[in-house]
Amino acid sequence: MQSFTEENYLKTIYHLAEKSSSVQTNAIAEQLQTKPASVTDMIKKLAEKGLVDYIKYQGVSLTTNGRLAAIDIVRKHRLWEVFLVDKLNFKWDEVHDVAEELEHIKSVDLIERLDEFLGFPKSDPHGDPIPDKNGRFAKTQFIKLIDLKINDLGTITGVSQHSSAFLKHLEKLGLTLGKEIEVKDITDFDGSVELLIANKPVNISREVAKHILISNNDKI
Amino acid sequence: MQSFTEENYLKTIYHLAEKSSSVQTNAIAEQLQTKPASVTDMIKKLAEKGLVDYIKYQGVSLTTNGRLAAIDIVRKHRLWEVFLVDKLNFKWDEVHDVAEELEHIKSVDLIERLDEFLGFPKSDPHGDPIPDKNGRFAKTQFIKLIDLKINDLGTITGVSQHSSAFLKHLEKLGLTLGKEIEVKDITDFDGSVELLIANKPVNISREVAKHILISNNDKI
DNA sequence: TTTTATTTTTAGGTAAATCTAAAAATTTTT
DNA sequence: AAAAATTTTTAGATTTACCTAAAAATAAAA
Ligand SMILES: [Mn+2]
Ligand SMILES: [Mn+2]
Ligand SMILES: [Mn+2]
Ligand SMILES: [Mn+2]
After folding, report:
1. Structural domain harbouring A185
2. What is the CATH number of the domain that holds A117?
3. Which of B28, B108, B158, B187 counts the highest number of beta carbons within 10 A?
4. Which family does it belong to (chains A, B) (predicted)?
5. Are residues A21 and A71 in the same domain?
6. A165 and A203 belong to one structural domain
7. First and final CA of chain B: distance in angstroms?
């Protein structure tokens, strides 16, 4: 059984490892708003518990046990987010912080029943996949909106940025999950993207387009 | 804002104060499964924060702020218990431990929405009243089943013992909330009580009868 | 390939919440 | 009222998760 803090470290290492296989001390420290020295301490502890592989100065990676533990936290986090949005009518930009707390509640039974109550959802309010109780989930092939070409069609199925500011911005533009979009133009001047959503034209910056994930059903 | 541990102390002091106005160090220690020396330390801290009144060797009592904080935890605990039973189909003897964790989730918005989602329940699965967001709740006048006389009628509206063993026992005997009972006899030999529930005779020990709370609608 | 900059680790310390053992205060019993 | 028992507090340690400052290792630049 891991402590609240250990769980947060495992989850952070898991998420950082999705980008680069070996995770660096400073990256963990920044993510967890703590100091590199503290990270080194905790990494040693997790290594002793067999949850991470660690070679001094060489970064850290999760062991099989560590990965399973991390995925379990991710599962809880995402199920709670679904609960907050589907049942308690939170907006998708309001759920992250509360889920950060709820994910640490320790009861296997609770999370199985919650999963059932929610109808065994496959993805959370941000389009992220929800692992099953064995830690398995479909690794979805997403394309970034920024990588689409003019005239490409697609459906918004995820976001790679969960900040409230970003999500509220998307909401205002009508860029929510499930919406179909078409790329009409890519501006030379600033790389901003001209979209068509529900027959309405919308212009988004490169920065926004980078963090919208698309499943491209069809191309013309 | 209180820590997880401070919240547990406040809640414990609140519950103990329902029995005797001044709460003793040893009683708190026993309830929290800790040592009296640790309790003294924490009491000093809570006193400095203005949450308890404390005179050395004279026991401790909650200030107005302390009481409000304690009632807020109790409110959360009981609302989560309702959620677990009504929505996730937990049994009434399975919810306490999980609620002990959930009660510490810090989000005013969450608990307001949960309250609404549950239909603003007035009592929890054990018949205990749920305070509103201002800490107000009806102080219900309960009678212990043990104090009833032969031929008295009543409705089971609460229990003063929340252990799983006790609640499972009641369940097996059909002694659940809302059931109407009639006292048929009180055994001379061991003080056990002969009841009639749904026209069936049930015999319960004194110990059990002590912890069943009755609202006595009528007497014959 | 040195020199410089960056990253990471160690050394030593702090605060919160515990503990044990011993001292002090209070309560109960003789 | 004195002695004995109980309760409570203090003193001094321990553990967890942090920190700062300095040293060591690695990576980048000259
Ligand atoms: Mn989230
Ligand atoms: Mn999410
Ligand atoms: Mn309870
Ligand atoms: Mn209850």
Report:
1. 143-216
2. 1.10.10.10
3. B28
4. Belongs to the DtxR/MntR family.
5. no
6. yes
7. 52
Residue A71 tokens, joined: 């995925």
Tell me: do A77 and A58 sit in the same domain: no
Q: What pTM did the predictor assign?
A: 0.93
What does each of the 220 residues of chain A score in pLDDT, given as a tens digit?
Answer: 899 999 999 999 999 999 888 899 999 999 999 999 999 999 999 999 999 999 999 999 999 999 999 999 999 999 999 999 999 999 999 999 999 999 999 999 999 999 999 999 999 999 999 999 999 998 877 899 999 999 999 999 999 999 999 999 999 999 999 999 999 999 999 999 999 999 999 999 999 999 999 987 654 3
Q: Which residue is nearest to nucleotide D17 (CA to C1')?
A: A38
The answer to whether B102 contacts A97, with C-beta atoms less than 8 Å apart, is no
CA of A96 to the centre of ligand 1 (A): 4
Q: CA B26 → C1' D1, Å?
A: 29
Size (chain B), residues: 220
- pLDDT tens string B109-157: 999 999 999 999 999 999 999 999 999 998 878 899 999 999 999 999 9
Please tell me whether residues B57 and B71 are part of one structural domain: no
Best residue in B82, B110, B118 to probe A by mutation, most A CBs within 10 Å?
B110
How is the beta sheet containing B212-215 ordered, strand by strand? B143-144, B212-215, B153-159, B180-186, B193-197, B200-204
Nucleotides of C under 7 A from a protein CB: 7-12, 16-22, 25-26
3-state secondary structure of A38: helix
Residue to substitute from B85, B107, B115, B117, interface A, most A β-carbons within 10 A: B107
> How far does the CA of B44 sit from the C1' of D12, in Å?
18
Same domain, B56 and B71: no
